[in-house]
Amino acid sequence: MADENTEIQTATPAEGQEVREGRGRGRGRDRGERGGRGRRDDRRGNRNEEEGGEELIEKLVHINRVSKTVKGGKRFGFAALVVVGDGKGRVGFGHSKAREVPEAITKATASAKKKMIRVPLKEGRTLHHDGRGHFGAGKVNVRTAPAGTGIIAGGPMRAVFESLGVADVVTKSVGTSNPYNMIRATFDALTNQTSPKSVAQRRGKKVADLLGRGGASEVEAEAAAEAIVE
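The line above is the sequence of Small ribosomal subunit protein uS5; the predicted structure tokens follow.
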């Protein structure tokens, strides 16, 4: 019996010691978790600042309810089409599907940010020249316009030019009114846009030489070349 009691007495402090050590380790983990949270908060803050540094214009173009037939019936979801731009010559579009509308919009916005393209703008307000775009059954015509014209476009095309930062443009959509095809046709026309600077570099000439071929004098051509802002 004495031996058993001594064993019990010696075992009890050991258990208590293990419990105290466990608590100590728990406090250490709590401190580590608190420190980890602080670091994650810092990383979040930096990421928000980076995202906040580049202000993007997000426009929801179209929401469509879609369904998938499965063994048990139909599963309904939503498809979102979003256009994103910085208002300074960069624009992109994305589309995605999800079970809920907010999730579909978030996924489409993330896809649009990854596929942004740069379009040269004349004086930062309009296109350098007229153009045409085609995709599927959608055809669009885009034309440069003088100051004060505004954005003469409807539906999905207006969202693209507002996000792009164009203030004066005249457009016409021919064919389908499907927003997906209209958006792709518009981007086809925008990707074909060129600026006098890029053409001059490609041909190994000066911008004034290209502008002077329209009948303008050398002085006027040089002044126009210096005034070009992409």
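Note on the example: Confidence is low (pLDDT under 50) at residues 4-52. The longest strand covers residues 57-70.
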